[in-house]
Amino acid sequence: MELKEAILTRRTARKFLPKAISEETLLEILEAGTWAPSHGNNQPWEFILIGDETRSKLAKMYQEYMEAGPLKNPDLPEERKQAARNFAMNFGDAPVLLAVASAPAETDLNKYDFPMATAAAIQNIFLLAWEKQIAGVWLSYGMNPKAEKLLEIPEGGRISGILALGYPEFVPPVQPRIAADDKLRRLP
Ligand SMILES: Cc1cc2nc3c(=O)[nH]c(=O)nc-3n(C[C@H](O)[C@H](O)[C@H](O)COP(=O)(O)O)c2cc1C
Fold first, then answer.
1. Best of 7, 10, 11, 12 to mutate for ligand 1, by most ligand atoms within 8 A of CB?
2. Angle of helix 108-131 relative to helix 23-34, nearest 10 degrees?
3. Nearest C-alpha to atom 29 of ligand 1 is from which residue?
4. With contact defined as beta carbons under 8 Å apart, do 176 and 118 qualify?
């Protein structure tokens, strides 16, 4: 798959087939993450593969978080609420659940650039995964003390995303984008 095709066709998926991702494929995808750029090549990311025991605790926390916040939104259609509840039960039955965290940062610069480099690693992961017909969802859940404790994030570290990955059972339709030209501001 050409890079541009991967970039343009990659979609978020939230429901997965009961098909495992081989250890070899998973490591290859994570390896792509390590080729993201980082300040001075400091490689601040850590990949945390979440096993069954931790996963069920995390699912419970995630459900509580969703019920207490996003699912209280009266503007969210009931159908979307139900889909979100189904997903939260077990992360769409994704065969792989992965947290990607940035290392503890002490300087202001590192507080700023560690999470950014880690986000770049996540995008690399999604793009190579897509080439292998693997999709997933990047959850922004995780920046709270309970999740950080469960995932053993050291003081000062940050979860950049929790990734549910697998072979998709269903890929939602494309989400439209605003043209780059409309996001472009030119300075003299
Ligand atoms: C930083 C970040 C956080 C996200 N958080 C969530 C999330 O918490 N729950 C979710 O269902 N999708 C989440 N997504 C996925 C977006 O909803 C999705 O990327 C967006 O709707 C565009 O769709 P596409 O990825 O299929 O192009 C997140 C994506 C990013 C990059």
1. 12
2. 140
3. 138
4. no
Which two structure tokens, joined as six digits, stand for 144?
Answer: 């709270």
**Half-sphere exposure in the Cβ direction for 77 (13 Å, CA):** 3
pLDDT in tens, 62-121: 999 999 999 999 999 999 999 999 999 999 999 999 999 999 999 999 999 999 999 999
Q: Which among 139, 144, 158 is the best mutation to test ligand 1's pocket, defined by most ligand atoms within 8 Å of the CB?
A: 139
Neighbours of 110 (CB within 10 A): 18
3-state SS assignment for residue 4: helix
For the chain, domains (ranges, CATH) are 3-66+91-170 (3.40.109.10)
Provide the 3-class DSSP secondary structure of residue 150: helix
What is d(CA 167, CA 129) in angstroms, rounded to the nearest whole number? 9
pLDDT tens, residue by residue, 15-69: 999 999 999 999 999 999 999 999 999 999 999 999 999 999 999 999 999 999 9
Whole-prediction pTM: 0.97
141-156: pLDDT as tens digits: 998 999 999 999 999 9
